[in-house]
Design brief:
- The structure is a single chain.
- The chain is mainly α.
- The protein has one domain.
- Helix content is 60%, strand content 3%.
- It has seven helices and two strands; from the N terminus they run H-H-H-H-H-E-E-H-H.
- Strands 1-2 form a two-stranded antiparallel sheet.
- The longest helix is centred in the C-terminal third of the chain and has 28 residues.
Length: 172
């Protein structure tokens, strides 16, 4: 993740994605997949999306990260490290949100569903799953960004741009 922070637009996007509020549970996990693609996209010098996804699903660490769910579990563990003092949930210091026990259970449920979608030997199904998760994340981000750009009171940062670094829906 450190390598992708070199580009100013990418840094702005990463900072925005950390502090943005109101992310649905599934979007929080789709974001991790998008970030994995974004990092590889920069490492491979911005190849077309088709090649990028095929590189991801054929990578040596695909099983560890996606099928075993390592990237999802690391995220959940990070959240679990910050319980609220009043035991009402878990505090996310970046977005200043509290995730309840129900939200944590939803994270585990969505993690399981994502893992089951990605755990297939049929490559086209893996490709379609990665593409769909990233497209759903992109749609949510674009909607949230457009709301923030139109209404300055909803803006959590003043350097919000209307697009994402890696455009999913424009390619397939």
């Amino acid at each position: 993740m450190k390598n992708i922070r070199k580009n100013i637009e990418i840094r702005r996007f990463l900072e925005w994605s950390k502090i943005v509020r109101g992310k649905p549970i599934q979007i929080r996990l789709y974001e991790l997949i998008y970030f994995e693609l974004l990092e590889l996209w920069l490492q491979l010098n911005k190849p077309p999306l088709r090649r990028l996804i095929y590189e991801t699903i054929n990578s040596d660490d695909y099983n560890d990260k996606f099928i075993r769910g390592k990237i999802f579990q690391e995220y959940i563990d990070e959240i679990l490290e910050t319980p609220c003092e009043d035991k009402s949930g878990y505090y996310n210091p970046d977005s200043r949100e509290i995730l309840s026990e129900v939200n944590i259970k939803e994270l585990y449920d969505v993690k399981y569903l994502i893992k089951s979608e990605l755990n297939t030997v049929i490559m086209i199904d893996r490709y379609n799953a990665i593409y769909t998760f990233c497209r759903l994340y992109e749609e949510w981000c674009l909607k949230k960004k457009s709301e923030q750009i139109e209404d300055v009171t909803k803006k959590e940062r003043f350097d919000v741009t209307k697009d994402l670094p890696l455009k999913i829906s424009l390619q397939k």
